[in-house]
Amino acid sequence: MADLETFRAETRAWLEANCPPECRGAAPGEAEMVWGGRNAVFPTPAHKVWLDRMAERGWTAPEWPREYGGGGLNREEAKVLASEMRRIKARPPLYSFGVWMLGPALLAFGTEKQKQRFLPPIVRGEIRWCQGYSEPGAGSDLASIQTRAVDQGDHWIVNGQKIWTSYADKADWIFCLVRTDPEAPKHLGISFVLFDMATPGVTTRPITLISGKSPFCETFFDDVRVEKENLVGVLNRGWDVAKALLAHERTMIGAMGDTGVGRPLGQVAADHLGLDEAGRLDEPLLRARIADYDIDAAAFRLAMERAGDQMKAKQAHPAIASMLKYYGSELNKRRHELAMAAGGSDALEWEGDRSNDGQAARDWLRTKANSIEGGTSEVQLNIIAKHLLQLPGA
């Protein structure tokens, strides 16, 4: 415990000295988020400084081994780092599917050469990844994918289409499910491969959502060459990798419900609705709804920490990620519903100065996809009913 408190004091001092003021507080919008990659865009020079400083310590992936660029922290130290970042409202230095999804899969299934090749650049934010899973005919039934990889000796030729490929138009590389044995049962004959999005034959087309914006794309593969050294795991057993990665993806999406950075909803509401004579939000029903949300959000943060401890100790039920994904998605939707209620008529504005060019309304509409992406809420509830609650007939 004494060592942990020493680590806390040192971490607190380092964060205070190294986290720029521009990188504290909630990001006002996606334009303030740093995704890295070979075409990285930084809102200010301070954001680049913050990423470089954190990456140098491995704290963009604090629990990854040091030999792969990570921080080498144990679970308790990582929790201290997270709590100290929340204390000063430090933004994540890097938003990365490489850190959240691919990295853990490579640590579990990748070769040593693959780990050395890809993990350190992911930590430094040098590669931006996208995920090639869903297809027009394979959404919730993901194992029905038809994107085909034909053996050409030392490489494959890939043809097919993916959909809802988040940020495919901005990504450098893709981790992708392809069918390498069309004669095998659908959960077999699938392989997990990596390739550069600049490879000839790869094209993307953004899909506009109701919010007027979208991270999602259609992605097309026309005779794309994929080297066999980029196969992750065992040939035709990519479903094993896919399932492990899905658990990390669902936990990542669920973490949207853990909003430890940014202004509390009560303050947002007070700006628009004012306070009563006792200094409380001058709208009792909304005040109660916000209090309920704050309690649930605090409880969910603790549940996330407990689940993280269980996963680290390899004691977590495989379906726990579905629980976190479901509840975190619903919690995030509740937050934005309350933000709209708190903002009053200003929050309804689509363009202009009062609501930051419609950011509140656009963010609210964007959250409607939370209960679809990464596996629908209905699918998650079925998994919970069958595997966690073991309900009869589930």
UniProtKB/TrEMBL annotation:
Keywords: FAD, Flavoprotein, Oxidoreductase
Domain Acyl-CoA oxidase/dehydrogenase middle: 130-224
Keyword Lipid metabolism listed: no
Entry keyword Flavoprotein: yes
A family per Pfam: Acyl-CoA_dh_N
Top-level taxonomic group: Bacteria
Positions of the Acyl-CoA dehydrogenase/oxidase N-terminal domain: 4-126
UniProt-recorded name of the protein: Acyl-CoA dehydrogenase family protein
Species this chain originates from: Brevundimonas olei
Upper classification of the organism: Bacteria, Pseudomonadati, Pseudomonadota, Alphaproteobacteria, Caulobacterales
